[in-house]
From TrEMBL:
InterPro entries: HET, HetReg/Transcr_Mod
PANTHER family: ANKYRIN REPEAT DOMAIN-CONTAINING PROTEIN 39 HOMOLOG-RELATED, HETEROKARYON INCOMPATIBILITY DOMAIN-CONTAINING PROTEIN
Protein name per its UniProtKB record: Heterokaryon incompatibility domain-containing protein
Every Heterokaryon incompatibility domain range: 105-251
One Pfam family this sequence matches: HET
Amino acid sequence: MEKWSPAIDPTYRKGQCEFFTWNWSLGTEFSEDLLSEHGNEAKEHLFREFLPAHQKELERGHRTLQRLREIHPIVASLVGTKPYLVDGMTLRLINGETSAMPKTYTALSYCWPMEPRRQTSTGRRPLPISPLLFQHLVLQRETADEGIWCDQICIDQVNKDEKSRTITAMDAIYRSARVVVVALEDIQVSTEEEIFLRAFIEDYEDRKWQPLPPPHIHERPPFMERNPVLMGFFLKICRSRWFQRAWCAHEMRLAKRHRFLIRCESDSHTLLSFSDFFMAYLVLLSASVSLPDEEKQVRHILNQVFNFSGYMDELRRVLVGSSNKEKEDGHYTLAWTTLISETFKLGAGGDPDAPDREKDANLDKMTIVLNSMGSGLALKRYAAAQSSRTASEELCQAVLFTLSLAAGDPTSLTTNGDPFKLATKECASWLRRPHHTDIGSGAMRQEKLPEMDPFFVKLDTSPYMKWIDLDFFVSSSLQEPPAELRSLAGLLVSECRKAGLGGGFLGQLAQGPLYLGWRMEADFEFWNINFTGIIAIFLLFGPKWMLGMAEKCGFASPHVLDEIKSAVRTHFSDGFDQNWLRDQEWTKSESSLHAVDCLLRIAYWLVGWSMSIMPQTHPDRWTWKPYICFSDQGFKAMILSPENMTVAVPLALWRMGYDRLPRVWLLDPNSEVEMTSNASDSGVGDEIAMRGKSVLFANLSNDDYSNLRRQGLCTRMRVHGPKQNSLEEN
């Protein structure tokens, strides 16, 4: 079979998706004689591309563990640095056709059944997947000496030490495989879908199509909307149990290349096989249609992993003959908090022989996060499992958040969900659960954030994690926008509505709002008041500030923002002329109407994004308002906040690169806190309760950040979680 590869021909689509029929079948068991154990020479060869990154991980792990011991010794006792990969694991491969050392191997990814098949005869092991899919896996190897790795077969499931070491090395195993074959065992291609797909594949492979973009991408109505059979097939994929399992998601993120296998309903000997490129293509086709919430979440993860823009970049590089430039340290682009949140939403079975299988599954999820982030750390599973509290889901997440703080992940200080209730009955922890706003607006293609310096931190080292000491920049006053500008903002909105403007939608693949329009919320007075308040601040600060803020804080996508910049600068190059706006001259020109419409679109995005934060941070969202802040420190900034809050930004987050994050801590000076006896000894000025977090909307330069740092106006505060009675109000 001629296998597709962009290195062969980036315009060649044959083999990306195809049906296979095998007229003979393997049995349901596998002979152990086909297993080979490989030594250090083979491991050095098979993991050669991963080993440089592995060495960096070990160095990173040593640094993180050192910091962790300083800020939270109890958490530090639960992890250790990984062993060196080559010496630290046993590697077996299915490699029975030749005694030669394998040059490559394929890894299998599948869902373990809740009760794994047990070995019934000496020298034979049960197949972990259906004989048809396993047979295809064997027959589609690249060479006769290519190995196959399957966890259930290649790990001695009785040997706890071997199992623990191999679990720690899962990142190396799946990242080093030539391809990861994904068996979607719980779904089948229906007869109707098979008929459609056979015709669709023939059309897709036709050379009549241009290399870029792929077929049917920009069609209206959307191609999937016009072809419900394809839509149903994609939804079926999203509903597969494989996408709901934490280990499977881990393996999917790590793999260099993927191949998906699904059995066909029409014939027990026929299956469908398709590539990761074809999966990315399906995700892109689905971007123009609405999906149910659960399937939309799966599509979001698929878009992160099989990012079509990344594949297009790869094809373009091949077309022009340039080399494929690897990302530094490989795959690690997610924030810790994002990965923790996504992993703990997924299922894990745990060891069926463990005393508490659910808690063992939580420890699995911790291992997945440590591996996926390239932390260089391994969980001391048996030490962690000794304490029943340590292995609870809430404690596992809190431990990982503390670890992410030591690793310098800035989102450890910007999580914006409900507080962890680790502390006493009276008070929650300062730590908050993940929320979809944590990484900021517009992060469809997530980029690695700059590392934060965690040495400034002092934590409550009890298991309850009630407080944190930080240096803050505090805004001494919050000011509402002038009344006359609010009135002018209302006029702009009214005239735009008369002109028939308004309306818009969310980008289906966006992480956070991607507003391409605006509308008045007729039944939501609070929204409209803040909408005009934000417009008033734009009029006060000017177009340069507004456009710079929008770019730094994540409005829309670059091509949308470029179009808005052009429209605004055409009519407001010297600022917002308030007299011209009041005289309504701008309503007489389609071009100037469009420029004002762009202003409203940015304001609508901003209030919409802030609205997604508000319910998390204060029991009465009606008290939220847009305020001018930090004006006394010499720069222009805006925040949406409840009334009577102390607005503070941690010194560690006061730098370029964090503009999109909800890095403003909203501290309640009127909340009671449990005073701590050692606060004054650590130089803490105030002890105060956190009520939530928000985004600092500003257009700050490196000089702006440096100037405030040089002024040395930091305030050290000890921040507690909110009282439990205030949580109940939420």
